[in-house]
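Input.
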Amino acid sequence: METNQSIPYVSVIIPAYNEERRITTTLLSIYEYLSRQSCSWEIVVALDGPSDGTLDRVQEFALSRQNIRWIERTENRGKGYTVREGMLAAKGQVRLFTDADNSTDMSHFDQMRPLFDQGQDVVICSRDEKDVPGAGQAVPQPYLKRLLGNSGNLFIQFVAVPGIWDTQCGFKAFTAEAAEQIFSVARIDGWGFDIEALALARQFGFSTVIIPARWIDHAETHVRFWNYGTTLVETLKIRYYLLTGAYDVQADRSEVKS
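Output.
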C-alpha cells in the first residue's frame, strides 16, 4: 500500500470514557511505538462523554507532541458509537481501534502491516487459539468472565459471525475503504459493535485475516456482567438487520461528525 504524504498511513483510534488514570500511559506507549515507524500516522482519541479528567490528560499529553487529535463529546453514547465516530473522522489508509487500557500492545501492528500491504481489507486480533495458533492471554480473565465469554461466543457464531471464536478483542484494523463502508452503515452503539463490524465485513465482501493476540486483562474494565446479556441482544439485532436489508440503505452520517 503506497503512502501519500498528505494522508497518514495509519490512524490509531482510542475510544475513551472515564480513563483519567490510565490514558496517559496508553498514549505514551502508542506514541512511542508509532514514532519508531517509517510510515506516517495519527492518533485520534474519541471521547465518550467522560465525567472525569480524561480530556485534561489527553490535552496535556498532546501539548508538546504532534499528530494527536481528539473528538470531544459531552454525552455518553457507548463504545460502538464512539469507535464509529473515530473511524469516520480518521484519515488514515489503515484505521485501527485499540482499547484505552492497552490490553493488546501496539506492537501487534507489526503483524498487521504486511497483511495490509498484501491487499487484505480487515485484520483482527484474537485471544483464542481456535482462531489462530499462538493466541492467548498473558494475564487471563477471571473464570466466570471466561465462561460467559465462551458461552456467548457460541451464540454469536450461530447467529451472526460463524467461524470466529473471539469477536470481542479490542484491536481491529480496516482499510480506509472498508472502514468507510462498514462504519457508515453500522447501527450498534454498545459492546456488540465488534460483531456488527465483522458481520458487515463479510456482507460487503471484505477479506478478514486473524492474527494471534498476547492479551493482558485489566481489572479496571468498564465491562460489567450485564453487558454480556446486552451484547447477545445486540447480536440478535444484527441478524435482524442483515435479514431485512437494513444495512443496504446508506446511513445518515449527520450523527457521526468529526
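The mean pLDDT is 89.
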